[in-house]
Amino acid sequence: MNVSIASYSFHGLVAEGRMDVFGYLESIKYRYDVSAADIWNGMLPTTDGDFIRKVRVAMDEKELVLANLCVDGAHLWDPDPDRREELHQNALAHLEAGAVLGAETVRIDMGGREPEMSPEQFDVIVERYREYCEFAADHGFRVGPENHFGPALVQDNMQRVHDAVDHPAWGVLLHFGHWNEDEEGGDRLAAPWAMHTHVPQNIVETCLEERMAMLRDAGYEGCWGVEHHSAENEYAQVEWQLAEVRRVVARWRWDEQAAAR
User: Fold this and answer.
1) Is the separation of the CB atoms in 87 and 75 below 8 Å?
2) pLDDT band for position 1 (50/70/90)?
């Protein structure tokens, strides 16, 4: 299995004007020897086609694939219909960008800040995901939510949406341990649907191999996506988290080789 580094890991450097998407691609390729990008759209100042194609050229030059395009500002639900339409148009623009970039997965959040979903909210979320899944399937990638905020932090909501969308192109960006309650149970529930992962520092420090093994045993074949959040000392912090994830993968490989011998 491959590893990726979420570009949000460097949001502190972005805020200081010290990194852009091209610097990020240089860093993951030549500083960290990683071959899969995980681009947060906070690093994309526009979805204009000319700019997105420049990003694709930069990726191709470095022989990088895009494990995930992580989209903020395009969530499915907002109580204001006009705002909801703006978010929908932004989602469509990013789905197009994902296709140009060769994304394997695209994260678009459910939206809503409360844990409960109204019937209207649920219907909108399901309808939009079905629409986006059709586009994703036609362009060779998967799309779905992250357990990120609001109703997506509730396991029952994730189960209901999964069952209602019922599309092979739908998946979950599993942010390990990020649930309203029963973090391990939430990870176990979403493991079979996981299309991508974000591995945060607290998981690295406490239960990394256990959670990675849970996902591996559920049949996960995507990237292990390292994500750091502090906005401090980001180059070094990312290096440490990445090394721990690689250590687990290397140990599994060693065990397999030892068993074969």
Assistant:
1) yes
2) low
Pairing of strands 3-6, 36-40: parallel
Mean pLDDT of 72-87: 98
For residue 177, the number of C-alpha atoms closer than 13 Å in the C-beta half-sphere is 14
Task: Please list the residues that pair with 89 across neighbouring strands.
Answer: none
pLDDT band at 260 (very low <50, low <70, confident <90, very high): confident
pTM of the model: 0.97
The one-letter amino acid at 56:
R
Buried b (16+ CB within 10 A) or exposed e, 35-60: bbbbbbbbbbeebeeeebeebbebbe
| Cβ count near 247 (within 10 Å) | 12
Q: Which residues contact 38 (CB under 8 A, 6 or more apart)?
A: 4, 5, 6, 7, 66, 67, 68, 70, 196, 223, 225, 227
d(CA 98, CA 142): 10
CB atoms under 10 Å from CB of 78, counted, come to: 17
Taking all residues of the chain, what is their mean pLDDT, rounded to a whole number?
97
Task: Yes or no: say if 108 and 145 are a contact pair by the CB < 8 Å rule.
Answer: yes
Among residues 226, 230, 180, 174, which one has the least CA distance to residue 204?
Answer: 226
Instruction: Using alpha carbons, select from 39, 72, 68, 229 the residue that is nearest to residue 149.
Output: 72
- Whole-angstrom Cα distance, residue 189 to residue 187? 5
Each residue's pLDDT tens digit, 109-134: 999 999 999 999 999 999 999 999 99
| Number of other CB atoms surrounding residue 250 within 10 Å | 11
Average pLDDT rounded to a whole number, residues 226-253: 97
